[in-house]
Amino acid sequence: MMPGLLFVSLCVGFLGLSLALLEPIPFPASLQECYEYRSYNMTPSFEAAHQIQQYCYRNFEYQQIASGKVWSGTNITIQGINYIDSLFRQIFREVEEMERQNKNGRRTKRQTIGRRYRREVRSPGAYQPFADCIVRLQNQFVEDPSTGRNTYQTLAAFHSGQALRTAHGGPGFAPWHRIYLLLLETACGAPIPYWESGLDHDMEDPTASILWSDDFFGNGNGVVTTGPFRSMRTILGGPIIRNYGTGEGALFTKTGYNAVLSRTRYDDISEPKQGAAYFFTLEGHHNGPHTWTGGHLARPNSAPYDPVFYMHHSYVDAVYEAFRQRQRQNGINPETDYPVNTPPGHGFDDLIDFRPYINQITNRYAMSDAVANLVTYEPFANCRNRCNGSPHLYCQNGVCVSRNRPTAAPSGTFAFGDSDGAFRRNQERMRFAEAAGPIPAGEKFRTAPLRDIRNQEDRLGIAPVAPEIQAASMQVREVQARFRRDVSHLSKNESLHHGSHQSISSIGRSYTNSFILDGVVDQKRWVYVPVRIVYTRSPNVKGTDPTLLGNSELQNDVCQTAHSGASKVFVASDGLDYYGNYKEFAIIDERQPVSVTTTAVGIKNPEFGEGEVLFTSYDSCGRPCRPLCLTSVNGQQKYKACSGAFKISSAAPTLYRNSYKEAISVSLSSYNLVDSSLDDASPPVTFVCGNDNAWPWVY
């Protein structure tokens, strides 16, 4: 018996044991195959084990959704799945062909000019092919027209709902959007021009830019009625709405660009950041053009329905690529430079979330040179290159700026710098937009690090995300307003599913579980079971336990936690045949050689049908913990190593409770060693967090 298992036997052998509603089951074959494949011929390590667990379960969940075995939201048409799959296949083939030719010395990145040579939107010939593509996609249907989605809307729906958690607010921002651009570009067969909005910011009146004219984006004030996108509709059926020059955020200025490129580590330009550090984040400066343009573009759930979204993000990706090149100049490999502490879903080996369309692209893959080499960017316009020869740009005070549109009057003559007739038309468009009420797409993007004092107030208002947008996203898409109302009374404990290593400063940080089970937010669908944690300290660099040598040795600890005495061990339950994820933590005393405690984790209520669930656990250093299941051995209840997979049934006696507090109370008496009896309930699963140099799973 392994030392860790022997210790657990001693700890729990004299405690009352009884069978709960959880019955250990064989590990799912596809999960086992993934574990074995990913760990084949590898030396066991805590970091690799944690990544394998996350990667394999996420793949398993996607497979369950794709096969229809697990709830996935609105019915997904096979036409849509095949179409998106075909786009991914084209991207993969292009990457493989590029790598093969580069390996044979027959092609360099510069030779990619043509298919994916992205130029500034005002450069000669850059804009029209893309605009023609958007119009074409608006008039095509890869899904049955009865779904109410044209091809463009099918693609736009990805950037909404739950997917935004992995697309924004962490280091997954750049790789997620890089792949998203490639998808649309592949559908178009034409490169996406980039909108360098700093060329407009440096004008006396950015709203007078030629981009907000018939020749480019169309009008920027109110309902879009001019330009190639004038007939476009959102998934709600209404027209695109803009409200340019409003809010607090500035366009992507040269100051913002220089701030991003002044850093050398990807972590420095990645969210989440607060205070002065926010000034250097790529996502922070990206927020500015979104909120400055206003309307649909200002709200993450509706932004892609305005094609300006893709041209803006093409520039953001160009800035990111410039940052990657600066890293190489400083001796840093941009393919591997990635933050250690990340929000849930933003890990280096986490899959980029395009559910329910199944793909195998991780953040690591999206940040590779193989993907980066697919695209080449035209140099940014400057006076030395004559503003890239664009007739719509000119050099002023040493920088390139945009020319005014034909209807724009001298700055200050009318609001937004328009001629009298154009100003009246814009007023009519705004009245129509305001009469339609607040845009039902939820909160706006976060305010950018830089402000523009020339901006006016945004009067369009904010409304909760419409059900149509939620449905169009084709996966679990929670409405934030409803979410806050439904879960505010459920739990004040932690949990966003599957965070990676816990940062040292986050011991007091709180999470909130989504409480979504098969698409429904309902307290009655969740029950709670106790889970025991047996935690042993990690060794120091000498391989010995620092607690045995005194606190002076804590600084040499391999696992750098807070050393305040309190640390976290996380436990997650993931549905195997239902859609539901729950995560909780237990507080342990990391100063002690061994710490034993109990927490409670939510699972599916068997009153709503039997189910299967997988339990996993890891500590604040990312060390996966080993599961022990309460099973019957020769007629006696004992703990033994297991996979952590259980069948949920209504078999008696039940150990589950309807609340976290009640579930914890079930096992409290087992710690009263004087009064405990053989009838006391013991948790059906125990996790041992130790230092065994072996993979933590058992089949």
Short description:
The chain has 699 residues and is of the alpha+beta class. The protein is 28% helix and 14% strand. This is Putative tyrosinase.
Strand content: 5-15%
- Give me the secondary-structure category: alpha+beta
Structurally, how many domains make up the residues? Answer: 2
Major β-sheet profile:
5 strands, antiparallel
Q: Any idea what the shape is?
A: elongated
Q: What is the arithmetic mean of pLDDT?
A: 78
- Secondary structure tally, helices: 18
| Fraction of helical residues | 25-40%
Which CATH class of the largest domain is shown?
A: Mainly Alpha
What would CATH call the architecture of the largest domain? Orthogonal Bundle
- For the termini, the CA-CA separation is 17 Å
Order of strands across the biggest sheet?
A: 1-17-14-11-12
The oligomerization state is single chain
Which residues form runs of ≥5 with pLDDT under 50?
1-20, 108-113, 410-416, 474-512, 548-558, 668-680
* Strands, total number: 18
Rg calculated over all Cα atoms: 28 Å
CATH structural fold name of the largest domain: di-copper center containing domain from catechol oxidase
